[in-house]
Every structure is written in structure tokens, then in C-alpha cells.
Protein 1
Amino acid sequence: MTLAEPLFGGSAFFNVQSATKGKGAFGLGGGADKKIIFTVSITNPDAYREEVTGLIKEAQTNLLTLVKQ
Amino acid sequence: MISLPVGRFLTRSLKISSIALSLLLGVTASAKKPEPAAAASTGPAAFTDSSAAGLVGTKRVAITNVMISFQASTGAQTSTNGMLAHKSDTSSVLQMPDMDTALLAAITDAAYAQLKTDLAASGFEVLPEATVVASPSYQKIIKLAGIANFSKFANREGDIMLVGATGLHPYFPYVAEGGGFNYPSTTRYIKGWVSSMSVASSTEGGPSATSIKSTYELPGLEIALAKELNAHVVKATYVVTLGSTKAAVSGRFSHHNTHTGEAFAQVSLKAGQSRIAFRTAAGKAKGQSVSVSKPLPARTAMSL
């Protein structure tokens, strides 16, 4: 049994920082010409834990409804 | 590195100089008000290959695995049309390379406790953990497919950290039953997370692209455990996503192109890969038939 649709939570506990990388001098080096990196950190661990735990609880309720004895 | 005040949905545009192709001349960054990816869903669930009819015979269940894949990175790449010097590409990566394992363990343990409660509320008799882990068949499963907790690995979308519940030894599900999603992406986003050469976890005791494909005996061992304990074997696996990102590049010539990346960090549970699977004593020892290259739609894929 699987979730047929994603369960979306929040984003308020995240912070994102951005940075860019290019190829080396004269365009040498592997990968894309320009790499844009967004780095996420969790600023409120308690809120993150509650959010994910809540999503899993909701998912499990929905999943196990299918096999309730 | 630029830190933006509204830090969850970012857009960055780049203009590349014609004089110094590899040097960044101008950077503009802006933050957009987060747009909800979707309204909170009720998350309807679906059988992937079977029905509850396969669970007749016993109400006993043995939980063998509760494992969460926390997405550590995801990415997107795009390129302009054109040949050689006129071709230009951009990649955008959303990543969380520093993960608090204690936090992730607390979430996974809560999921395990909730699963036991929910199974009991659904009419099942949950066997004691000590009974399950002492079982010879369980030990064979761990010997075959067990992985180190907090293993760094990857799925089709990017890097992940695999976290198992305390009390159970995490093991990688039979990969052929999960469709193509559980095979590592060929793109490495976080340097050193997974070996580029061997596509192996950088964590000692972690999985590799080779090891996850060699556990073809796993369904048979789970069936043996179901028979040994006279119980259905229950496994819960979830994929907690990090968000989404987009990349764009525009312009006719590589040295005059504008490179843009967008990212939206938002936690979610992934459909199709967040699942509870029952292995019954009457299951197929060779596993269920699932397309490796193309995961079946959620409503018709299988996991039972």
C-alpha cells in the first residue's frame, strides 16, 4: 500500500542560502556551465519534527484504513 | 554565499560575461513569496498490487523494518540548444548536507511507535519486538540486506540519509519491488555523499548500487519469517522530501546567457514511495513483478 498522493507540509522551519559555482578558468571542468546551489538548514528542529511526525501519522492512518480488520 | 531574508523560495539569475566565460560578473538574487505547492492533501492511499483479501488467515503481524529516507538533495539541469561553444547549461541543486541524526532518529522512532499503535487499532496483534529480532529468519534477513543506520545513499532524485527505528536493524527493501525510484541517480549532488565510481554509500556498512541488486533472496526470507512466526511481515518505508528546484538558461550565445535557478524548500511525504508493505506466508518467493525502469502508477504498482 502506498500514498497515492503526496502529503505536503510546511517550510517555516527551513532557512535557505544560495551560492553559485562556475566552471574553472577558460571554461574547463566538468558539470554545468553554471551551478546554482541552495543549501537548506533547519532553524526550528522541534517544529520540523512535529511536522514530519504529523505527516507520517496521517499517512499511516490512511494506509491502514485499507486493511482494517 | 548570499543569505536572503526570505529564505525558503529563492530565485537567482546570472549573466555570464563574454570576456571571462568562467567568471561571474553580476549576480542578482531575489526572494519570492512562497507559493503553496498544494493544499494539504488528505493523502488517500491505494493498494499497489493486491487487496486486503491476502491478509486473511491471521491477524498477527511482525514489524521488521521502519525506515525513512530523508532526502538530502535534489537537482535540475537544463541547457540551451546549440553546438559546442554556443551550447550552455545550468544546474540547480537544493541540498541539506548537514543533517541532525538525533532529530531524524526521533522522527523515525515516533513513526515506529505510531505504527504499532495504528496496527493494533486496525485489529492486528503486533508481535513483541524481542520475538521478531530473535527469530532466525529475521537474522538471515539482516545478514543479507541489513545496512548501517544513518547510511548516506541516493535514490533517483538525489542523495538521501536512511534512518531505521531504534530496536530494529534497518534493511534495504527488495529493490525490484520499489520500481526504478530506489536506484541511485547517476548525478552526484553532494560531493562525497556517495562514491561516484562504485555508487556506494560513504557510510561504513551502508548500501551500494551493487548490494541492493543482489538481495533477490529477500522476499523468500520474509516469507520464511512469516511462516516461522505465523504472522504477516510488515515493513514501513517513507520518503521525506526536501523540496523542489528548477534551472533555466536563456540566450543565443553561451557568453551572453542568463542562468536562473529556483528552489522551494518544503517538507512532504512522497507518493508512491511512502508505503506500508505486508509480506504474507503465501507471497511469492521471487518477489512481486514491478517494472524497474518505469515505476507503475501508484494505483497499480505492487508491494504486498
Protein 2
Amino acid sequence: MLDKTQIAKRIAREVKNGQYINLGIGIPTLVANYIPENLEVVLQSENGLLGIGPFPTEDKIDPDLINAGKQTITMAKGSALFNSADSFAMIRGGHVHLTILGAMEVSEKGDISNWKIPGKMVKGMGGAMDLVASADNIIVAMQHCSKDGQSKLLKECSLPITGINCVKKIVTDLAVLDVLPEGGFKLLERAPGVSVEEIVSKTEGRLLVEGEIPEMVFD
Amino acid sequence: MITKTVKNAAEAVRDVVSDSVLMFGGFGLCGIPENCIQALLQKDLTGLTCISNNAGVDDFGIGLMLKKRMVKKMISSYVGENAEFERQLLSGELEVDLIPQGTLAERIRAGGAGIPAFFTPAGVGTEVAEGKEMREFDGKMYLMEKGLRADFAFVKAWKGDTAGNLIFKGTARNFNPMMATAGKITIAEVEELVPAGSLDPNHIHTPGIYVQRIFQGGDYEKRIEQRTVSKE
């Protein structure tokens, strides 16, 4: 099984040179730490910054400079600042190449649920609905099953939907999977020590398994 | 030259009445009009509709207006950091309209730009689309969202001049420039107010035409929600 850091490391391998990338809160934020140094990418923060830098040292903290998770940050070389309408014009207009975000459930059609649990306090969707409605390439970081063992890779999402037909790839604690354009999950890789049988048994949605499924390797 | 300067926050908010629709710039607590919120708290107001990306925290920002029961309805994209908000919402004292963040920004931009409605893909296939007009363009579905305006828009800028021109700093810009365009009366508070002519026109983010009143605010707390530091 992968821990959160390993999920982030595995997703970082999907990043390509020259991409503009939006990282969601949680595991997706960790991805920034593992993007290979030879790649030049620009991280977008939907509250109005292209070029998120590292967290500041104590003497460099600026309350006027935060990310979408409201954490203090710095600006990378070549940054640009803008307003929220421009920020979502970049997102909606398809200018951001890659969106990485967390999910509570994903369906075999690529629908995603990640904003609301019935009976619990609704905090709001923030920018998630805009991001998933427009991004061409969405990678989801999530746990394969809920705490009580229920699959979160489903035929149909049971929780309120954030966006439809949008997820392209999923990295869970057990596996890497593609969401096929015609529907269904395709198993690509398995976590160290996890069998294909275990992944099959823990995936409720239609799962395609073809040939040998390689085990992920981490240094 | 039209001079828009008012003495202070109290004078700027003098004619805000109960049941008004208000916009507040800011993302989290970053770039919020702290002085105007304090001045509104001194007034006896109820039934307000507040349009703001977030709802502050329990003891700062719009959270203080919620605590004083001034707000009837919040229109926001994310309201997660506020226990009093949760209590009022669950007890039915407070209405909330949750809107995708990009849709909220664009609705305000459209409102200020005289665009009554527009189509966006955000929310298609979700409960956000319920009751909304849908249309297909080039094989993809979109839903119609309407422009938003307010009786008063409260914005916070870094620098401003007596003609109402504004310059923002860092990510404190966020919703402020669009809200400035969408208020029937837009009130700008700035950290530094300078005479018209002292700011380089090339650097103005919000032209003064959108701003009716401006004053230099004081005692900015600029509270940080998530103080995150690196060691080296």
C-alpha cells in the first residue's frame, strides 16, 4: 500500500515539462515536492498567482501572499498575479494543462464527488467545480476504499457530484488506473505488495485488467 | 478632478441600511476590507445579504457580522472555517447560496460589465445546475448563470489615489477588482492614500470610475489563517 507521500511521488511522475498545473488541497499539494528538478513547470493558485514558490522562512512571511489553502507562500521566479475572474478564465479557457485533486468517489464514467457529504456541514465547492468542468487532464489522488472497506471506485457515485466525465487517471493507495473514454477503469500499476486480486475485489466499477500488471517501484 | 475621499470608514458606510446587498472583497482573510467591516459592526443593521468568497472566521472578518446576527444570507463559494456560521445555518437562521468560485467571480465581473447572464460548464451534471437553463455549444453542455450586483461593494487595496484609482498587492487582489465594478456604490479602503497624479497610470489595476468613496484605513491586522513556514 502507498502512503500519502508515495501517492504524491507517483503522481509527480505524470508531470511533463512546460506544464501549467493546478494542485488541490491535501495530497495534491504534496506533489509539488516531488516534481523532478529538470522539469520546468508553473503552479497556479486559483486565488490569483501563477508561480507558487516554497513556503516562506519566518522573516519572509507576507499576509498578502497565500495559496488557495490559505497557507503563506512565496512567489517563484517569473510569477504573475491576477484577479479571481482572470484566474478562472485561465482554468475555464483550458490554459491550465493539468489539474490534480482529491476525491471521495470516482465513477467508471469519470464522474467525481468531492465536495459534499449528506448530513454533514456543507462547506462549499470552492473552485473544484470550475476546475473539473474545464480541465482536459485531471488526475485524482484518493484512497481506494473508505475506512469501513467500501470501494470508492464505483459504477455510479453515491455522493453529490462535483463534475461529470472528467477524471482521466487515478492514483490510489493500491493502484494506478486510467478511466477509459468509453467507461470503465483500466488497471495500469499496483502498489508494492498488493495483488491484482485485491484490487479487483476492492473496485466496484468495471475494471479492465490486461496482461501483466507491473508493481510500482520507489527509491 | 473628481475627489472621492471620505474621512474614515464611519463616513464611508454612513448610508448603508438594513436589508442591503453587500459585496466584500477578499479570499479567506487575505485582502478583506477590515476597516469597513469594523464600521458596519458599529451600526444597527439586520437582514443583510453578503456576497463574499468566504465568510470569515469566528472572531474576524465577516464572522463578526454573523455573530452580531446582521446577516440574513451569504453568497459564497466556501464557508468552512466558521463554527458560528455552521450553527446559524443548521438552526435555519442563516441562508446560504454556495456557488462555484469561478462562477462567483464571473457573475460579479458580468454584473459590473453590463452582461446580464452567461454560459459556463461549471456545475453541469451537479445540483448547481438544478433549475437553470442549459444549452449545448459545439457538443458540450453549459448552464446559464446571471450577473451579480450589489448596493454597496467594499474593497481593500494596497494603494489608492484621491480619484479612486487602485493598486492591489500580492494575492490580496482576488475578488476586489470585480467587486469594485459591481457596486452601485463602491467603497475602497487603502493602506496608503495619495493625491491624484502620484500613481503611475500604467500600474493602475482598478480605474477610479468604479470607485465612489475612498479612504485610508488604519490598524490593519492582516490575520493569517495558515501560517506555514519552511526551515531553511
